[in-house]
Design brief:
Length: 330
């Protein structure tokens, strides 16, 4: 990126406005059992709000390919066209199932970095992941065993392995991993969905989480890497083909199936912005709360270059918003 197109410091606040809009639109669907309607509401709100942001953006991590996602698809140009040129990662709702069931930790997320810095592995849906907070950075590796990583992290944090808590998606594919974690002596916090939030938890004091392990979405890995660059944590990943067809396609595309991808492989930019707003209540942020006077949201807005993390508590007057906003918050 040329010096004539620096990333604007105020973009962090612009992104907060984007994720707040998506969270407000989606939260009306909490517990109503329709995750597609909830996701569509968040996508619509996010797309409209992104269009007003001062940036020349291209979605690198989105809702899918153009033919699969009518909005916020990979390759879509967003923003008002003004500099700077940026890559954008969006997850209107990380945890649509959580939201549809009224469960904790559904969040709305947007991240951006300089153009050409985000990694998108075509045809790969899942990655094997290992994420830790700042205290564990440099002390763990996907090339080590689960037991070695737990022991090393415990030593770095000055605790016993029995004091550590590992977040794992509750999936049959993780049966062996779960057994290895238990044999190492650590505790497990199972999550049903939403491993962006799970990957960020080790970086936030008070969540009681020390590590994320397991196989989850590849797009979510890049979004998590953006957050951990801002928070000082670490994520490592390996591409995880689901079947031989996907493996053959990955090999044909020259993807590094055996390589441990570091954070700079997932997002190379040294100036990353990230905003995360709670849709339902969780360990990271509170969810949307409605009152007679409007609604309240809680957002984490962060920037990697400065290392500044802002926790933004906002009150939204929905009556006033509905009169000029192009988003249906009703």
């Amino acid at each position: 990126m040329s010096r004539s197109e620096p990333l604007d410091r105020n973009l962090a606040f612009e992104l907060a406005r984007v994720t707040e809009a998506a969270a407000l639109a989606a939260a009306r669907w909490m517990g109503r059992g329709d995750k597609n309607a909830a996701d569509q509401a968040a996508v619509n709100a996010m797309r409209v709000t992104l269009a007003s942001v001062d940036m020349d953006g291209v979605i690198v991590i989105g809702e899918g390919e153009k033919d699969e996602a009518p909005m916020l698809y990979i390759g879509e140009e967003i923003g008002n066209g003004l500099p700077p040129k940026v890559d954008v990662a969006v997850d209107p709702i990380d945890g649509t199932t959580l939201l549809s069931k009224g469960m904790p930790n559904a969040v709305s997320v947007v991240a951006l970095s300089e153009r050409g810095t985000m990694y998108y592995p075509p045809g790969i849906v899942y990655m094997e992941k290992l994420a830790v907070g700042p205290e564990g950075k440099g002390h763990v590796s996907l090339e080590c065993s689960v037991q070695e990583n737990i022991r090393s992290l415990a030593k770095a944090k000055g605790v016993d392995p029995r004091d550590l808590t590992v977040v794992i998606l509750d999936r049959p594919r993780h049966a062996e991993l779960v057994e290895q974690v238990r044999q190492a002596g650590a505790r497990i916090k199972f999550i049903t969905d939403g491993d962006v939030a799970g990957g960020i938890m080790p970086c936030i004091e008070g969540t009681g989480v020390d590590m994320l392990l397991g196989i989850g979405g590849a797009p979510e890995a890049v979004v998590t890497a953006c957050a951990l660059k801002c928070l000082g944590g670490e994520i490592q990943c390996k591409l995880w083909p689901r079947n031989e067809e996907e493996r053959a396609q990955a090999e044909a595309n020259g993807l590094p199936l055996n390589k441990v991808l570091q954070m700079d492989d997932l997002v190379r930019g040294d100036d990353v912005f990230m905003s995360l707003t709670g849709v339902t209540h969780g360990e990271l942020v509170g969810g949307v709360r409605y009152t007679a006077r409007g609604a309240y949201t809680e957002t984490l807005a962060m920037r990697s270059r400065s290392g500044t993390i802002r926790r933004i508590h906002s009150h939204h007057n929905l009556g006033k918003l509905s009169r000029y906003a192009a988003v249906a918050y009703g």
